Amino acid sequence: MIIEARFNGPAGSGNGGWSAGVFAGAYGGDGPVEVTLRRPPPLDTPLALVDGEVRDPAGEVVAQLRPAQPLDEVVPPVDLATARAASAAYPGLVDHPFPGCYVCGPQRTDGLRIFPGRLPDGRTAAPVRAPEQVSAATVWAALDCPGGWAVIAAGRPYLLGRIAALVEALPRPGDECVVTGAVVGIEGRKAQVRTSLYGPDGALLGRARATWIAV
């Protein structure tokens, strides 16, 4: 496994959702997979999956994987117009801790450019344009940042610590989808969030729950 440099999150490391999706693909299985990131995923570095652990060439543990508990809950969808309106007020457009992020960074013209804005009920929502090449890691990536932006605030950045996801189906290249996110609870520096991705016809494409950690 190699996380290519263009799939970065914070500068110099892999986007958490994309990386977790790559790791989960190597892990396999039919049900949801839980990925715990133990260190920032290195870029352009050969990584190996050994006994449920992703390790770098020096043998250091990058992530741990295991089957996840059932992901029964989803974040309700919104229509595309509502998602677009929320995205227009995306706070990351003016204050972003990692503006070069492949998923949600406004500096990236070659990224997914998912800009989650807040809805009146506290959820986040954003349109998602599926890229020309779509994989399960694309869905994992789309399910990542919209959860974080449900808790990220000015001067209060968070990083993904753990994510469990289930991919129901892949969008077609060019599909304009909708992703929603919500906070489940906050305890100290840890925030529990959920995200759901919906296709143009409203069908559920993927769901995730994650733990984000304030840094």
Describe the structure.
The protein has 215 residues and is an alpha+beta fold. Helix content is 15%, strand content 32%. The longest helix has 12 residues, at 16-27. The two termini are 27 Å apart. The model has no long low-confidence stretch (mean pLDDT 96).
Blueprint (SSEs and pairs):
Layout: H1 16-27, E1 33-37, E2 48-50, E3 53-55, E4 61-67, H2 80-88, E5 117-118, E6 124-129, H3 136-142, H4 145-148, E7 158-167, E8 176-187, E9 190-198, E10 204-214
Antiparallel strand pairs: 1-4, 1-7, 2-3, 3-4, 5-6, 6-8, 7-10, 8-9, 9-10
Helix pairs in contact: 1-3
* Helical segment count: 4
> Biggest sheet: strands side by side, in what order?
2-3-4-1-7-10-9-8-6-5
Oligomer: single chain
Tell me the number of strands. Answer: 10
Q: What's the overall average pLDDT, rounded? A: 96
The secondary-structure element order is HEEEEHEEHHEEEE
Cα distance, first to last residue? 27 Å
Provide the helix percentage. Answer: 10-25%
> How big is the Rg?
16 Å
Helix-and-strand structural type: alpha+beta
Q: Which descriptor suits the 3D outline?
A: globular
Strand content: 25-35%
Low-confidence stretches: none
Q: Please outline the major beta sheet.
A: 10 strands, antiparallel
Summary?
The protein is of the alpha+beta class. The chain has four helices and ten strands, in the order αββββαββααββββ.
Jot down its keywords.
15% helix, 215 residues, globular, ten-stranded antiparallel β-sheet, 32% strand, 10 strands, alpha+beta
